[in-house]
Design brief:
It contains 11 helices and 6 strands. With about 375 residues, the chain is of the alpha+beta class. It folds into 2 domains: about 230 residues, no CATH class; about 80 residues, no CATH class. It has a 6-stranded antiparallel beta sheet with strand order 1-2-3-4-5-6. The longest helix has about 40 residues.
Length: about 375
Amino acid sequence: MKIIDWYILKRFLVTFLFTLLILIPIAIAIDVSEKIDNFLEHPNLQLSEVLNDYYINFIIYYTNTFMPLALFIAVILFTSKLSSNTEIIAITNAKVSFTRFLYPYFIGASLVTLLSLAMNHYVVPKSSKIRKGFEKKYINTTKQANALKYVSNFSLQLTDSTYVFIRSFNTENKLGYDFNSEVYDGLELKSKLSADNIRYSEKDSIFTLTGWRKRLIFEGNDSIFSGSKLDTVFNFSPKDLVYKSALAQEMPSGELLKYINISKKRGVKNLNAYLVELYKRTSLPIASYILTIIAVGLAFRKRRGGTGLNLAIGVAIMFLYVFFMKVGEVLGSVAGVNSLSYVWLPNILFGFIAIYLYLHGRK
């Protein structure tokens, strides 16, 4: 690498870190102002617990979230500074092409992308599990807690021939009502196990059925058995009954992918919320390249208004990107749609803008 490459790369990384160090304290200050009442409601809550279980993981989560934004703003800031100081004019006069000028930018974007990918797929999910556990214990409202606590009218395919139906289930005390398990041979029902109540024991992974009835279907006659209590095992746990995007955020990508594949085999109809979470862990880091090209294209040429105008345009573009990203996540979570296309939609749209600015910059 040439001296100018090291110079640009150094400015890239320093400005990027400086921008993150500005954004994170602002996020913490806003969060403290919102959550201080929740913290004070618990007199036994220690400051060390707040810092270690919540705010350290809060910083990890939002540092990763703000990376593309910080990268975009950082590139606009220091590239505008290069332009206003006529340093870019000197570089272009030295017969350095726009493509060659982007070389150190792409090295910096690659470093940020690799870091973001590692955090998205491995670090942040584990961190989020600790943070959300703290939120569930000290912060979440009753309505939010109940959304994860109660499951109703749930169906699950355990094997190619076995199906489970539960009228309602409380994931906190592991107790459910109106349970049915049906075994089929093709389209023909072979047996049915029903129970008034079903309770799960985490200690030995056993389900206890109370008020149970079992019907075996044969040609010409049926056999019916019943009893007050029956201990048995099934190939699922209460965790499999709750399909919420919040739970997907707590799973490392390997575990999340395995969970999605198992759920598909069990016949779960809508896993798009999980697919959206899996896909965006890659799409958002990759956006660093697209946003870098857009930022350089905006700030490459010296213009009236200088850094302030470039920054205003950049912030507007960033908000549009975030808007399309959120819309894509919501639409991608709807049953029956292609989640991958919706998650990558912002990158595709802004990719065209990046290509236009790149071609314009080459002239």
